[in-house]
Design a protein that fits this description.
The chain has 436 residues and is mostly helical. It has two domains: 1-199, MFS general substrate transporter like domains (Growth Hormone, Chain: A, Up-down Bundle), CATH 1.20.1250; 201-436, Up-down Bundle (Growth Hormone, Chain: A). It has 19 helices and no strands.
Length: 436
């Protein structure tokens, strides 16, 4: 497997190479990610009744999954830089499958909770290694195309797995957890079919030089801007769409849960469609510009939901919200991959995972608290205004883009010019010298 694929070599290189083993393993691994929450969420009331716990206690099965990923993602990223992406992916898939499946046989709620926490760590390992593999193997707009396909698969799973989870839990409380075992044969396939991508620089050691170089790489304004965008897009999505919107639809229109699910699924469908064309959009627009456009789509969607006179109109307003997700997330990953050299790429993307989980955890809590004071319609209006403010801020912050990617960064090391956005590569060179 080659380390990178140059996007400008052929017209076909701007698309997704579906026959690539790397693409197939990555997309299959990503398809399992929604097992973590969307599959389990419908089972929470049944699990609550089975073990005789409260609603708040049962909800720990969700929060513990996220908290573990927030705290340990940076350590997993460092391991992926040190040991290799393939090794971390294989072990993460195996742990994800075995701990998730074992929860089906757990004798107590505490045992299920412990297994969920371990599964959250393994899920973080899957995300970090798959996104980093894409960053290592592909380059340019083809990287955007593959990242877009990856986000589309994630959105498709998030839309389908709640339905599957509801059907499985109708059999028994533990049946949804059996689906996790699918990750075990996928771990074996990843071990057999994947090659470890070549990376620029010397062998990575997790020492002071690595930590200093990684810190400087992620401290670049362009990278920090992408982390902020990740947090904001997840915070608003999980707060406004997945928390506020269901309560509003029930209160204003007495909508049944299944119809609320249909409205939310509209956003997922739009996210899939836009994610799949991300590579083509990246040929004409910068990643930063597309991220700003994504927040503008958020603004249109949330203001549309505030003005909507009917559930159908709310559903239509979710289309631009989903489009915003499809624009932002693949472009964030592409921009971070471009801005950080391969030596620190997994560490940098691990912080993207931490900000993702942090936004998902904080959004529902913050929006539920605010809704008690403002009411649901006013909160949608405020979310729309905040989204437009984010779009304007990002448009200014990303003007001119960042360095053209790791290839330019590496050239800067050769030339001895520590330009803005290139300090990670300079630190990498220093680390190599210190190693000798």
């Amino acid at each position: 497997m080659t380390a990178t694929t140059t996007a400008d070599e052929t017209p076909e290189s701007t698309g997704v190479p579906w026959r690539s083993p790397a693409v197939q393993i990555v997309l299959l691994s990503t398809a399992l990610a929604p097992l973590g929450v969307p599959l389990v969420s419908p089972a929470l009331p049944v699990i609550r009744d089975t073990f005789g716990v409260t609603d708040a206690t049962a909800s720990l099965l969700i929060s513990s999954y996220f908290v573990a990923g927030i705290v340990l993602s940076p350590f997993i990223g460092a391991l992926a830089d040190r040991l290799g992406r393939k090794r971390v992916l294989v072990w993460s898939l195996a742990a994800f499958g075995l701990t998730g499946g074992a929860a089906a046989f757990a004798p107590t709620f505490e045992a299920v909770l412990a297994l969920r926490a371990i599964g959250g760590v393994a899920s973080a390992g899957i995300f970090i290694s798959t996104i980093t593999l894409i960053g290592d193997v592909f380059d340019g707009v083809q990287r955007n195309a593959v990242l877009g396909a990856n986000n589309a698969v994630l959105s498709a799973g998030a839309a389908a797995f709640p339905i599957l989870g509801g059907a499985l839990v109708a059999v028994a409380w533990n049946v949804p957890f059996l689906a996790y075992f699918a990750a075990v044969p996928l771990a074996a396939a990843a071990f057999a079919l994947l090659d470890e991508p070549e990376r620029d620089g010397a062998e990575v050691r997790i020492d002071l030089a690595y930590l200093r170089g990684a810190a400087r790489a992620v401290a670049e304004p362009a990278v920090l801007t992408m982390y902020a965008a990740t947090f904001a897009v997840e915070f608003l999505l999980f707060g406004a769409v997945l928390t506020v919107l269901p309560f509003l639809l029930e209160a204003e229109y007495a909508l049944a849960p299944v119809l609320i699910g249909v409205v939310i699924t509209t956003a997922e469908a739009s996210s899939i469609a836009v994610s799949m064309i991300n590579g083509r959009l990246a040929r004409r627009f910068s990643n930063g510009g597309l991220v700003a456009a994504g927040f503008a789509c958020y603004g249109v969607g949330f203001l549309g939901a505030w003005l909507a006179p009917s559930p159908l109109a709310v559903s239509l307003a979710m289309l631009p919200v989903g489009a915003g997700v499809g624009l932002v997330l693949p472009c964030v990953d592409a921009e971070v991959s471009d801005a950080v050299s391969g030596t620190y790429r997994a560490g940098a993307l691990s912080l993207r995972n931490s900000t993702t989980f942090l936004g998902r955890s904080a959004g529902p809590v913050a929006f539920a608290g605010l809704a008690a004071t403002t009411g649901y319609p006013a909160l949608l209006l405020a979310t729309g205004v905040a989204s437009f403010a984010c779009a304007v801020g990002l448009a200014f912050a990303t003007r001119g883009g960042v360095a053209d990617g790791a290839s330019e960064v590496d050239q800067a090391v050769v030339d001895g010019i520590p330009a803005i956005g290139q300090t990670a590569a300079v630190d990498e060179a220093v680390a190599v010298e210190e190693g000798h």
